[in-house]
Design brief:
single chain, 338 residues, Helix Hairpins, Alpha-Beta Plaits, 3 domains, 4-stranded antiparallel β-sheet, 12 strands
Length: 338
């Protein structure tokens, strides 16, 4: 509630108390009787429900008239404030909803997170840190409240339904995360998304190997089993703590310096076909190419300086933010001549 609204509510409450107290004292003085009778007559007059009997004497009649008019004025004022407050809230919600939908419609090359539970929230945190645009799809009231509190773009709906995928901008999206708590829901989400976009990167959550197999058949590019992954990570931390610490450092955008990145070589890149040695990548950018993923899906780990970086290759690189940016610029597409 705004401070001005709170102040008006306090004044109205004070006026009601004052009129009730004045009416009770007045009836008690004019008509006599008990304090309860005086208070009862005041309530009846103020609430506009009518009187048991006509008040005796002009003084009581004048007091009754005053209380009736005061009741009409005060309760009318309260009703006006309530309606105004509700209208302002509804209007504000509508304005915020319209702004949020407009922002979602303007998203490009973004991710769609279908399911804002524990896994979806962790993914959203990584996207926020990295500055990657995304939108959340979920039907849970708790998830929607959580997204709203964190200032995250969201839509209330299911990723398994085409209408909500359309609203989330699937035709413009870079990828989709099927991170619902249910394997069946993730399967439907994957099927729906894959039927809309054959080229869309889909990462899905699975609870077991059987669900993983079905999600792969449905078209998921990558499948994560959180419980299995957690056990593997625990074993790595116990067996090779320094290796695990380094991988954690460079694999999260929340890390202080180093991180991994992948850069795909596009057909209109001027440096495509040249070798790592020719380009002097380490000396020029500071970043290090630690692997090359070829178009057939094979990996060239720790590639030789004399290996050529061809169109369709994906470079897996490590470096600091400025170094990675310099490497991206080195392999940026040639500007189109005007």
């Amino acid at each position: 509630m705004l401070r001005s609204e709170r102040r008006r509510a306090e004044l109205a409450a004070a006026a009601i108390v004052a009129v009730f107290a004045g009416g009770t004292v007045g009836f008690h003085s004019i008509l006599g009787g008990s304090w309860l009778d005086a208070f009862y007559r005041t309530v009846i007059s103020m609430s506009l429900t009518g009187l048991d009997s006509n008040p005796r004497g002009d003084g009581a009649k004048y007091l009754t008239i005053f209380l009736v008019l005061a009741g009409v004025t005060i309760f009318g004022y309260l009703a006006t404030q309530i309606v105004t407050s509700i209208a302002r809230e509804v209007t504000g919600d509508a304005r915020r909803e319209k702004r949020r939908r407009r922002m979602i419609e303007q998203l490009e090359n973004h991710f769609i997170i279908c399911g804002y539970g524990r896994v979806g929230r962790r993914a959203a945190e990584e996207f926020q840190v990295s500055g990657q645009p995304f939108v959340v799809l979920d039907t849970s009231a708790e998830a929607i409240v959580g997204a709203r509190e964190r200032g995250i773009l969201f839509l209330e709906g299911s990723g398994s339904e085409d209408v909500f995928l359309d609203r989330a901008g699937i035709d413009r999206a870079r990828g989709l995360l099927a991170s619902a708590d249910s394997d069946a829901e993730n399967l439907y989400i994957t099927l729906s998304a894959r039927s809309r976009r054959a080229d869309l990167m889909i990462v899905a959550r699975a609870s077991n190997r059987e669900a993983e197999r079905k999600l792969a058949l449905a078209g998921a590019n990558r499948i994560v089993q959180p419980y299995s992954t957690a056990g593997t990570e625990m074993a790595k931390l116990a067996l090779k703590p320094q290796v695990a610490a380094f991988i954690e450092l460079v694999s999260t955008h929340a890390g202080p310096d180093l991180r991994f990145e992948e850069i795909e070589v596009q057909p209109d890149c001027a440096n495509a076909g040249r070798t790592i040695r020719d380009l002097r990548i380490r000396a020029t950018t500071g970043a290090v190419v630690i692997a090359l993923r070829k178009p057939d899906g094979t990996f060239d780990v720790t590639p030789s300086p004399d290996v050529s970086i061809d169109v369709g290759d994906v470079m897996i690189v490590i470096g600091k933010e400025p170094e990675l940016k310099a490497l991206e610029d080195l392999f940026a597409p040639e500007p189109v001549a005007s």
